[in-house]
Design goal:
This protein is of the alpha+beta class. The protein contains 9 helices and 4 strands.
Amino acid sequence: MKLYVYDHCPFSMRPRLIAGLNTLPVEICVIRISDDTTAHSLVGKKVVPILEKDDGSCMTESLDIALYLDALGSHKLSDTSINSDFEILRDDFLKDYVALTSPCFIHSCREFQSDSDINRYQQREEDFLEASFDDLKNHVEARKSHIENFIRSFIPFITSSDPSDSLTATELVLFPYLHHLKTQVNVTLAQPLLKFWQNLSPKIPV
């Protein structure tokens, strides 16, 4: 099987992590931002993640793919619902998350191979944030401090004693944000968040 992803995409991380936790033979294929052909040829639209199964058929929708892969493995997901209170909190911190990580992604993620890749992504994120990447650099430390305090609100949603063995769908959705904040910006994670991230991060297939 092939899983088509962006490195920077939290949605792509969901099935990617499940594939790693279940040690499934899935090839990770990173699509360039400026690649308008691959996804269209597979599913008729520009979207990630995409799972191409062994029979050539394809799936989209990150949680659907994660559930499909988990069913092929050892059933790591202990539930399939996302906590609604968590979703509200996630929406509240999304702009700060994007503001901190997006200027870093263009230097570290494999989907950025050319100026065309970078410019297309940068324009989209600057429009969303209503600020330029240059302007964002002036507020990194203040925003980082704010988000370090805010993400403590996610601690109650970490409920699995060993998430590498069994985790909730809410934990699966939370993980990519923590992973990107830690690896791209080196935010300081409170101990429960740090332990959660350290447990799962080695399981990500590349």
